Amino acid sequence: MNSKNANSETERRLRPRFYLAKIARNVFTVLILSLIGLFGISMTSKQPDNLGVTNGKLATCPDTPNCVSSQAADPEKKIEPIAFKGSSAETISKIKQTIKANWPRATLISERDHYLHYEFKSLIFRFIDDVEFFVDDKASAIQFRSASRVGHSDLGVNRKRMNQIVKSLKP
Fold first, then answer.
1. Which has more pLDDT, 41 or 100?
2. Core vs surface per residue 103-128: b (16+ CB within 10 A) or e
3. Residues in Cβ contact with 79 at an 8 Å cutoff, skipping those fewer than 6 apart
4. Averaged pLDDT, 133-151
5. Are residues 4 and 76 in the same domain?
6. Would you call 25 exposed, middle or buried from its count of C-beta atoms within 10 A (0-12, 13-18, 19+)?
7. N or C end: fewer C-beta atoms under 10 angstroms in the chain?
């Protein structure tokens, strides 16, 4: 047998091993990610202690790019507040209905007069973003803030989510 035929014969015999190794690696990865989700292992930190409304203001965004807010001074983090008509109770109800209908991994953590705090969990690693809404009757606007608890960048997830919510809630 010449060397060309020997090489192709060797490649033919090794090909199934290569594919089995690749399949095993993928199965292992899926198994680990499934266990993370199944046992609630998460890549989260504790809830920040600066959440809520103080003198009509939500907490400022950190220096990291993983936060957006209607009250941010930094144009990179700013999204305009949402104008509303009607009562604050109707507006709170509409926010809750919108989130329940569109974000199954969102959990309402706190509800007080004119204020809602949600936790949004990512699908695989269970990263948590804190999303707050403050219905400002004086300005007839919904102020909001959405920030990741961990990491530096969120790849625009908070901005994308809040743009979807803003679009859903516009009168």
1. 100
2. beebeeeeeeebbbbbbbbbeeeebb
3. 68, 69, 70, 72, 144, 159, 162, 163, 166
4. 95
5. no
6. exposed
7. N
